[in-house]
């Protein structure tokens, strides 16, 4: 049975949460495989709105086992706050599994994330300030603290002291901050152990057994292709692998098991934080997209940068991830324009470039080449069949599909679960 991957095809906030949630009732496991509480999924069910940061969206689907994979970095305070918040609203979280190999975001990494950004000044990344980057850096430096370390106090203490050896020098001598006490860090982490213990599992084994037993496993990416540490607009990226390859590494599910890759792509584009964004709008069209689309960060509340649909970016995401199906989200936000520009290629220093430029300099210089499609003014939020859409909206979807590198299987026309048009089944 299949392992299905869901990835963001742009710079994040494409609406992955809703897509995962839509499939949630039909899958047995939903695995978060990268990132941490830098993510922000908003899921709307009826009158209820849920903002998830760390927990996989599958947590909202009864019968679905939510899994936090080894590729994730976990802020334990946030984990338990999110669980408590959901429990208070009657959502059962008792099925949640957490990989013993996932890394823990220690308090000093949150501090370092913020001071690093300040230190970078105009070269800042615009991180979410949640300690994500420093925790992944520790992982690669082999200085990280893993969930399993919390079950061995001696090891935990040795690792925290090892990590703080250098960090305290940096904090005190370079950043002029107070040194961090290893005892305090260890005590805080140990305080979570009893609550954590029943959730912790060898999740790679659990997932292999699930696939062998013909269960369906959904692998849900945090962030998105253009924020991937390898394939994104480096250095303006997150610190993890947010693409299909990362789904395998971050969960332990081998590539040969992945049968479908669903790319989530918004009918326009947004980005938070710094970094190049060729179709970005600085005029009232951008403001209108932001207001109509509610484009403010779920995690940080920051206003998102907004721009028109960028087809070379979608094609790039299709290529890097092996996208089999696109979910086109928030089409309703484009209602009310007489014509809608779509970026079909770039002008890079006077030359037409049809694909993502090879170099970051090229991407910084890329100016969008637009094609213009006739808009529509009818309210489309009640459309449930493709034929319910006005002719111009149908033509827009078909035109975008033709240049984006994979078929569009679902179209979103509003935030609610029901506000969805299915063209091809996703499972
Ligand atoms: P970090 O992930 O906090 O290190 O931030 C690195 C970059 O990724 C910044 O530009 C963030 O704004 C961006 N980023 C991180 N998570 C998300 C997300 O879930 N949606 C959109 N952008 C994100």
TrEMBL record:
Provide the residue positions that the database annotates as binding GTP. Answer: 12-18, 40-42, 304, 330-332, 412-414
| Reaction(s) this enzyme catalyzes, per UniProt | IMP + L-aspartate + GTP = N(6)-(1,2-dicarboxyethyl)-AMP + GDP + phosphate + 2 H(+)
Q: Where in the cell is it found?
A: Cytoplasm
Q: Where does IMP bind?
A: 13-16, 38-41, 128, 142, 223, 238, 302
Does the record bear Ligase in its keywords? yes
Its needed co-factors are:
Mg(2+)
Output the superkingdom of the source species.
Answer: Bacteria
Molecular function as annotated in GO: adenylosuccinate synthase activity; GTP binding; magnesium ion binding
Q: What is its EC number?
A: 6.3.4.4
Q: Which Gene3D superfamilies match?
A: Adenylosuccinate Synthetase, subunit A, domain 1, Adenylosuccinate Synthetase, subunit A, domain 2, Adenylosuccinate Synthetase, subunit A, domain 3
Q: What class of enzyme is it?
A: ligase
Query: What UniProt keywords apply to this chain's record, in alphabetical order?
Result: Cytoplasm, GTP-binding, Ligase, Magnesium, Metal-binding, Nucleotide-binding, Purine biosynthesis
The keyword RNA-binding is annotated on this UniProt entry: no
Family annotation (NCBIfam families): PRK01117.1 (NF002223), purA (TIGR00184)
Q: What is this protein called?
A: Adenylosuccinate synthetase
**What organism is recorded for this protein?**
Aeromicrobium flavum
Classification from the root reads: Bacteria, Bacillati, Actinomycetota, Actinomycetes, Propionibacteriales
């Amino acid at each position: 049975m299949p392992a299905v991957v869901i990835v963001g095809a742009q710079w994040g906030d494409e609406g992955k949460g809703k897509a995962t949630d839509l499939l949630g009732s039909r899958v047995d496991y939903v695995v978060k495989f990268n990132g941490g509480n830098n993510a922000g999924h908003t899921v709307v069910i009826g009158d209820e709105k849920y903002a998830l940061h760390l927990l996989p969206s599958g947590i909202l689907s009864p019968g679905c086992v939510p899994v936090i994979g080894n590729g994730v970095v976990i802020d334990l305070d946030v984990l338990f706050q999110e669980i408590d918040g959901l429990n208070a609203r009657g959502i059962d979280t008792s099925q949640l599994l957490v990989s013993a190999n996932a890394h823990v975001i220690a308090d000093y990494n949150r501090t370092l994330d913020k001071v690093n950004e300040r230190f970078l000044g105009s070269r800042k990344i615009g991180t979410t300030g949640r300690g994500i980057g420093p925790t992944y850096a520790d992982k690669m430096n082999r200085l990280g603290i893993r969930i399993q370390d919390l079950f061995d106090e001696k090891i935990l203490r040795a690792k925290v002291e090892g990590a703080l050896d250098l960090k305290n020098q940096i904090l005190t001598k370079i950043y002029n901050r107070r040194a961090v006490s290893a005892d305090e860090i260890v005590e805080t982490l140990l305080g979570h152990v009893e609550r954590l213990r029943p959730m912790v599992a060898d999740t790679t084994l659990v997932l292999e057994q699930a696939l062998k037993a013909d269960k369906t496993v959904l692998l849900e990416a945090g962030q998105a292709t253009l924020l991937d540490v390898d394939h994104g607009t480096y250095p303006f990226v997150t610190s993890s692998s947010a693409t299909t390859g990362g789904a395998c590494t971050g969960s332990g599910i081998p590539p040969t098991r992945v049968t479908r890759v669903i790319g989530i792509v918004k009918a326009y584009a947004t980005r938070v934080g710094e970094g190049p964004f060729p179709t970005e709008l600085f005029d009232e069209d951008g403001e209108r997209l932001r207001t109509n689309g509610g484009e403010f960060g779920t995690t940080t509340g920051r206003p998102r940068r907004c721009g028109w649909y960028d087809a070379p970016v979608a094609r790039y995401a299709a290529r890097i991830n092996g996208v089999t199906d696109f979910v086109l989200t928030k089409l309703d936000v484009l209602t009310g324009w007489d014509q809608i520009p779509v970026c079909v290629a770039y002008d890079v220093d006077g030359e037409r470039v049809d694909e993502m430029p090879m170099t970051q300099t090229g991407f910084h210089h890329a100016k969008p080449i637009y094609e213009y499609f006739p808009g529509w003014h009818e309210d489309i939020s009640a459309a449930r069949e493709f034929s319910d859409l006005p002719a111009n909206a149908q033509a827009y979807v078909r035109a975008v599909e033709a240049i984006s590198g994979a078929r569009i299987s679902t179209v979103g026309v509003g935030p609610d679960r029901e506000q969805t048009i299915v063209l091809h089944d996703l499972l």
